[in-house]
């Protein structure tokens, strides 16, 4: 059966984004050959939200203390594109990848499936 997930981020500067995940976020990785990094993600969960708009997919990193994580990553040079906001179900923000893309970061207030 399914034993993992593989997330693909498309980037205008894939090498810089790989280096960011490896060096700034400190995620373990393997080299699949020729410097092509496959980065280990922390435990993950998936949610399906209804929409009447175009279907899209988003990536959020989870943390236990969003304000502290923002301070730590800002000190490492990470740019945040939105202030931390209260969405009711959690506190969230977005950070910019070196290639220009963005990913979310949030502190959940709900039970996390990663704890199962």
UniProtKB/TrEMBL annotation:
Residues 3-108 form the VOC domain. Gene3D superfamilies: 2,3-Dihydroxybiphenyl 1,2-Dioxygenase, domain 1. SUPFAM superfamilies: Glyoxalase/Bleomycin resistance protein/Dihydroxybiphenyl dioxygenase. This is VOC domain-containing protein. It comes from Amycolatopsis thermoflava.
